[in-house]
Input
Amino acid sequence: MEVVVLLKQVPDTETAIQIGEDKTTVKTEDVKWVINPYDEFAVEEALRIRENQGGGRVTILTAGPERAVEAIRTALAMGADEGVLINDPALEGADGLGTAKVLATALKDIPYDIIIAGQRAVDDDGYLVPAAVAEFLDIPQVSMVFKQEISDGNIRCERTVEGGTVVIEAELPALFTTQRGLNEPRYASLPGIMKAKKKPLGKKTLADIGLDSSEVGPAAARCRVRTLSFPPERAPGRIIEGETVEEVAGELVRLLREEAKVI
Amino acid sequence: MAEGVLVLAEQVDGGLRKIAYEVVSEGSRLADVLGEPLTAVVLGSGVEGIAAELAKHGAEKILAGDDPALADYTTDIYTNVLCDIVKDKDPKILLLGASTQGKDLSARLAARLDAGLAMDCIALKVDGETLIATRPIFGGKVLAEVAIEGTPQMASIRPNVMEIIDAKKTADVESIPVNPGVGKTRVLEKKVEAAAQVDLTEADIVVSGGRGMAGPDFSVLEKLARLLGGAVGASRSAVDEGWRPHSDQVGQTGKVVSPNLYIACGISGAIQHLAGMGSSKYVVAINKDAEAPIFKKADFGIVDDLFKVVPAITAEVEKLKG
Ligand SMILES: Cc1cc2nc3c(=O)[nH]c(=O)nc-3n(C[C@H](O)[C@H](O)[C@H](O)COP(=O)(O)OP(=O)(O)OC[C@H]3O[C@@H](n4cnc5c(N)ncnc54)[C@H](O)[C@@H]3O)c2cc1C
Output
């Protein structure tokens, strides 16, 4: 079974984000970079599929800057077989559709039965790239999967929907995105880290995959950031005090009803 | 020439969802600014009856795509059908809800139409011919204002954020032909969570518990949530302990909720948790530790044992409701 994981490197979720001078990008110095948390589930699931299906390859595919190599190496240390990084300065400022076109084009040279991606990247919170990749490849997609099973060329996925779950079946090749609950990602072991150094990690430019920046770069973007700002700070809250818990609760309920008007 | 605003009003099992009213209301507001018509689309099986409701929130034209093939949502068939409608009607702006279904559908559709899409928006405006969307990124740490270009200009809107308006218009429901095309995925089974009376992402009130719950018994929270017509959420710690299902997790790697009232019980207020509830209108924190960071993000705080405070609040609300 050939499994491809679409992986993105993002700032650690603890990172305090700083807005750049241009007001349209964030500062990248002093940022600790990690694998997008949802993509960790994707790597883990890919490894399990390889194990359960008695072989195959797990390829990590990333579009991003040079530093994203670290994220790919971490995935290789977890046990993936091979990495591909599409790195081209012309991609800076690409939007979700542009990135998806790059990934889908790169996938023309990578065999796949299953593609796994995070349901969203926790930096741009875009939710767009996986579905767009599936569309460009003309394969089915299932979003927010927390359980899957593969047999006889089909994948059966359980996914979250409002107020419940559904079981969905699709023929392979297919793409699915991850949800919490799918698995517990393993850590990279020390031998894994040693081995990862020798695993193939190919780097390609847009020209290498036959794309022109005018098709996928900022010039082609349909979504353009005008400004970034910080959300308004919440005014300091009020600690409600009183003699008894009944008194405190009574005051809270009064405030919620009369001031906030939410109950 | 592209003209007007088209919205998809989401329904489930033959009933319009709350997000449907929000999307229509926001679409109506934008259509008024443009001075162009608003068309609402409802897709499903046996939905013609419910579609008329949308006129009350501003829809001037209502299209119902009624077909047994649309009974269950599947990405491919809904994309096929909505794509046909968009090509036929050629709207300037296309809005959907950023529900789990809406995110899935709008992403696939944007790729098929090669259209710009801003996902999970909390504010929209038009500037000349351009739709400008505000959307939280980095788990709500930053707000991005994005310009959407091309045709149509697409946005999905975060549930519970846009105001539902009363427009008192009337409109006929036009039944439109549907060509489902080939479905690449099949729904085999649907399971409705018995506990989920109100969906977390749609609830007006969310009562969440964290590690402070000290065990799987969330009945004190459930009782208050039920009384307020709200839903129960959880921090990742509570989920990791196995006290609550993963689908209850609120946060950067869980659900994003934006209720009118969020009551955090025994939750410290880690940055990843705040990412999921930061856009709540009012936040109440109940925590034993006066130093817990959640108090910095709460409008009202109570420093005490949640097992004493929550039942007392419940009793007060009961008194109120008589
Ligand atoms: C990549 C990543 C993603 C993450 N994503 C999420 C996410 O999506 N959602 C999320 O919630 N977290 C997430 N986390 C975890 C987050 O960092 C915190 O660990 C978590 O939110 C803490 O949960 P908690 O507040 O319930 O527990 P704690 O931090 O342990 O806090 C428990 C609180 O309960 C209080 N307490 C205890 N007993 C009582 C009582 N009887 N009455 C009143 N108060 C009491 C304590 O004073 C304490 O403040 C993520 C972490 C990482 C690294």
